[in-house]
Amino acid sequence: MDLTQLDGQAFLDSAFPLTLDHPFTTAQATAEGITRTQVSWLVDLGFLRRMIKGVYVAAQAGDSTMLRCLALGLVVPE
Predict the structure, then answer these.
(1) Tell me: the pLDDT tens digits for 59-75?
(2) CA 43 centroid distance within chain
(3) DSSP the chain
């Protein structure tokens, strides 16, 4: 992913390869071509926030009980 395209933006846009309104894992980000280093960089700059260990969401996604449940569903065994 070319992170230079984010210069001057306040939030991620539709060019980001993952959904902006649902949480995703580091593994899902890697599968879409985003490295762990890039995920950390996006968190540091405020584009992503870490919900729980290994699960992230776009900063503009807000917060809700449902979003938290979706995040937990990605990492809690069935």
Answers:
(1) 999 999 999 999 999 99
(2) 8
(3) --GGGGTT-SS--TTSSS-SSS-EEHHHHHHTT--HHHHHHHHHTTSEEEEETTEEEEGGG---HHHHHHHHHHHS--
